[in-house]
């Protein structure tokens, strides 16, 4: 399963302060994390960033042992941050705004459902 993530960050709206080492399955010093684990952890970091520092995240992924694993986990990392940004942005919209947006998208034929 996905490792637990419970940061101890002060409520002073910091600019940064999360670091760690996350190793993929198959890495020679394996931490056993899957791409889904990277997605989940990145999503949680993104949502936390929206709560404490306006959604600002700077991330750095380092690799070199397994190109396939690095590529998969890099994509999952970005997907997690993007999903967090979308969810945090939508949570700021009111119900009437969401209804209008859904209606507008349905009439244009671009999307059936939001």
Task: Write up what this structure looks like.
With 114 residues, the chain is mainly alpha-helical. The chain has a domain of 74 residues. Helix content is 50%, strand content 0%. It has three helices and no strands. Helix 1 runs parallel beside helix 2. The longest helix has 25 residues. The two termini are 29 Å apart.
Question: How many DSSP helices?
Answer: 3
What's the N-to-C terminus distance? 29 Å
Number of strands: 0
Q: Major sheet: size, sense and barrel closure?
A: none
| Category by helix and strand content | mainly alpha
The residue fraction in helices comes out at 40-55%
Overall morphology: elongated
Mean pLDDT: 71
Low confidence ranges:
none
Order of helices and strands: HHH
Integer-rounded radius of gyration = 17 Å
Portion of residues in beta strands equals under 5%
Protein name: Histone deacetylase
InterPro entries: His_deacetylse_dom_sf, Ureohydrolase_dom_sf
Region (Disordered): 1-34
Organism: Amorphochlora amoebiformis
